[in-house]
Amino acid sequence: MSYIGHEDAWQAWRRALGGERMHHAWILSGRRGVGKSAFAMAAARELVGEPGVPQPADHPDILYLSHPAKNDQEARKQAEGKPFELARNIKIEQIRRLQQRLTTRPTLGARRAVIIDPADDMETPTANALLKSLEEPPQGTYFLLIAHRIGRLLPTIRSRCRVLAFPRVPDTEMEAVLAREAPAASAEMRAAAIAAASGSPGAAIDFVQLDLGKIHALMRQIAGEGDPDFALRGRLAAAMGTRPDRKRQLAAIELARSVVAARMPSVAPRDIPAMTGIHADLVRLAAQAPTANFDAGLLVMEIGTLLAGLAPSRAPANG
Question: What is the model's pLDDT at position 214?
């Protein structure tokens, strides 16, 4: 499957692959949902493949690390093929087990690929453990670090990696993706999904699947009218649900950011600092939400309060 916006990344990767000295560590940087994981797997297969050597679907020389199951109970669910909850971070124990594996030679050829997805979900001790392998990579081992927020990676890790950037997908191409992947969605729903996704086809598809159209309408109403009696915020909380999962919470924050961004071009100059501050607060929430244990109800109220701050003041003018 080909992904929109991957052409430059493939050209850079294949030039390096065909060169004399392939860099040993790469960061795949871009918004969540632009296809970085799929690129990493396809690129890893090109890296480890050798002429005349059969390449199995489950390749022993492609090592993939991501969030593990949250605990032993969730791990049992995973083993039984049942839905299970993930841990919030990649664990240092995973990196240590990986490093033990790297003391052996690749199984089928001369190269091995390590994919960490997402590398920006490592806490500092885990990242420092990985850094040791990046500083002294085993012969034939190459790292592909997927980063949705590259700024969260340690500078020492970034300095040892070459970056492949995955750009935003234009709205016209996003519309084509949604028409193909979610043909039953209304034109209004697709437009809202595109606005919220900010150039990420995967995020746009998630938006449609999560059915956030009503939430988007309420957010726009709060931003336009305010919410002096908290009635709209109450409706917003009801639309979110009593126990929204983390994916729905993250989508709601991104949706609120899109509402703020949509109002930016028409805002009066005197209101720009306040709007910028509101957007910055939503960016902070988006950065904290993947790992913080937010109370879902309080999170929704905070989002609603920030959006209410966009509404024009209804106080009478002096004079």
Answer: 85
Q: Which residues contact 197 (CB under 8 A, 6 or more apart)?
A: 33, 174, 203, 204, 207, 254, 258
CB atoms within 10 A of CB 124: 9
Q: Is residue 192 part of a domain?
A: no
Alpha-carbon distance of 310 to 223, in angstroms, equals 5
Q: Tell me the CA distances in angstroms from 171 to 201, 233, 243, one per residue in order.
A: 9, 30, 32
User: What is the count of structural domains for the chain?
Assistant: 2
Are residues 40 and 162 located together in one domain of the fold? yes
The enclosing H or E element of 166 equals: strand 162-166
In the predicted model, residues of the chain with pLDDT beneath 50 are 314-319
Cβ neighbours of residue 189 under 8 Å, at least 6 residues apart?
Answer: 208, 213
Same domain for 224 and 133: no
Q: By 3-state DSSP, what share of the chain in percent is helix, strand and coil, each rounded to 5?
A: 55, 10, 35
